[in-house]
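re: ur msg from earlier - yeah i can do the phosphoenolpyruvate complex, just paste it... oh wait u already did. ok heres what im feeding in:
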Amino acid sequence: MPDERVLSGIGVTPRVGVGTARWHRPEIELSDPPAPETVDPEAERSRFETARDRAREAIERERDRAEERVGAEEAAVFDAHRQFLDDPQISEGVESALGDGLPAEHAVQRTFDRFVEQFAGMEGRMAERADDLRDLRDRLLRILTDATTTDLAAVPEGTVLLAERLTPSDTAALDPERVAGVAVQTGGRTSHAAIFARALALPAVVGVGDALSDVPEGAAVLVDGEAGEVVVDPGENRRASADESAGASVREGRVTTTDGRAVEVAANVGRPVEVDPAVERGADGIGLYRTEFLFLDRDAPPDEAEQMAAYRSALAAFPEGRVVCRTLDVGGDKPIPYLDLPESENPFLGERGIRRSLGPDADLFETQLRALLRAGAESGDDGGGEDADDETGAALGDLAVMLPMVSRIEEVESVLAVLESVASDLDSAGVPYAMPEFGVMVETPAAATLAGDLAERVDFLSIGTNDLTQYVMAASRGDERVAALHDPLYPAVLRTIRQTTRAADGTDCWVGMCGEMAGDPALTELLIGLGLDELSASVVTVPDVKARVSETDSEAARALAERALAAETVAEVREIVGIE
Ligand SMILES: C=C(OP(=O)(O)O)C(=O)O
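and the outut:
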């Protein structure tokens, strides 16, 4: 058996892939420039201009392609490339190098290298600009030297792509059908490579460092995006784990248990770019759209038309399904600078979620509800602006609105009143809208205790086990010292879940789960036994959860849940469920 070699980095997608190493080395080595007197500056200027035009066209093409595959937000990086291409300082730098008698390719290299050095010495986002400049420099050099490079869209199936760095254009070109994994020497969790890899559900490890450069072309390599490991010459055991992680194949359409009980398997998404991968991985709909992501990383909130366009395109992606939009959930771990959230002694117990929407963010909340009600209208309302969705008129799925951090019946009553008033304003203005399904998250012990009263007022409850566990166990989500307590398999949490589903038994109110627990296929049978009607999972695990649902017998699941509910310790629960 060959010796395994394990390199560590930062795992960015919870998947394991194995395949054959293939290096992507786009850097171009130029030989020394010829003597200046032998160079014709006019001819070189014209070569540079032609190369710049060709680069501009290619950037446009790649931008469109990236937008189609991974979304407008990620594709926006190509706009930065286009701006650099026409940046006067760069043009001046190239002009001055041509004036010094350098050929076009050397002029490009000298100019860009200076800017790369400047940006690389800065912090944060500015440092990322250095990558954009390298990307653009190499593109121009490839054109000027007629260099042939790997066509990343056409690598052989089963390729594990290795690179010193992956530029946005490289990553956007990757074909998930062909690429078994990606390992990159540089980059962090929020690097472009990581973001694209996640959006495409590719196993990926970034920030592996120089050790990666010793991996030979053609070696067998396993990429463990969960553990953050790159394993060269993996042994049989490792390969078996990759096979397991390759997971179930995508299943279109609804699944039922072996005895015919329908369980909806939806996906959790945070940004428009994640919607298409959810469709591709066979989700029945969106069980949690974390709409606060539409409000992050910007200077002002999205207006009604922009929000409406985002909601409508999610609805159009699931014409047969349901899209559950959670209203703005800020505060706690999700600050938004322009909202000027006050310091809180304990933000998780402070003014967050619905508490803000019915308080200081009332105007934003009303705008969001207007956008949601209008988004659900059959067709014909295009949001009234150029930001509006061009899917207008397409078949749309069913919209549902869900409230975060509910702990009082009064909150639900107040929101119902706001909904009525928004609907009546739209009515009077003759604006088309549709009343959505209406539900609340059960993420506070108070909501679980009141589940029966809530169920009388809403169409659905969705259990957010991430927060529910934090509040039931009094163990902060982000505090490593109490991480072991943050486990939904503790009997207190399991019984709170059952309390919630039981409260809705026999009513028209359905009960789903959108916390991370719902996405763990090892717990699917238990959750069916606990009475969940819907499971909303991370996009990558949707096929595995669907597969588990269709292997489950509801009677056996109920018996399993009864045993787990009778257990007194987490260790007993784990043993009963059959996990370590
Ligand atoms: C799904 C949940 O919400 P969040 O976005 O806070 O993880 C949860 O708390 O389980």
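cool cool. Residues 288, 290, 443, 464-467, 514-515 surround phosphoenolpyruvate (CB under 6 Å). ping me if u need the other ligands too
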